[in-house]
């Protein structure tokens, strides 16, 4: 979008450009969410069944799978274990959760100390 003053082009108007907001999911959250959703679909599990199993709401699990919600190490461990992921990979993923990007407000104090 360009603007003009007195018939003279003044350049691009940056007011229409947007930048990533603080609420934009981190790439690691997006990848983890896609991975969790793929595992759930591969095992033909419903979102509501897995939410009940993980003791989270259906909407919370859906947001986790879309990379919009943080996931606690406990919930991650429960889901991955249920999906049959090996303990070594579960530990790796739990250790590499992006705490800073997630705003860690959903972690219990014990989970924060362990991470």
TrEMBL record:
Region (Disordered): 1-23
Signal peptide annotation: none
UniProt name for this protein: HTH cro/C1-type domain-containing protein
PROSITE patterns per UniProt: HTH_CROC1
Every HTH cro/C1-type domain range: 36-90
Organism of derivation: Streptomyces rubradiris
């Amino acid at each position: 979008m360009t603007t003009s003053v007195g018939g003279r082009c003044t350049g691009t108007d940056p007011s229409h450009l947007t930048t990533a907001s603080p609420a934009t999911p981190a790439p690691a959250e997006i990848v983890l969410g896609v991975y969790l959703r793929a595992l759930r679909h591969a095992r033909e599990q419903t979102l509501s069944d897995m939410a009940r199993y993980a003791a989270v709401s259906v909407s919370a699990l859906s947001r986790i799978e879309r990379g919009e919600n943080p996931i606690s190490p406990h919930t991650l461990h429960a889901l991955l274990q249920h999906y049959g992921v090996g303990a070594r990979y579960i530990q790796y993923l739990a250790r590499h959760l992006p705490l800073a990007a997630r705003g860690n407000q959903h972690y219990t104090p014990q989970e924060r100390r362990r991470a």
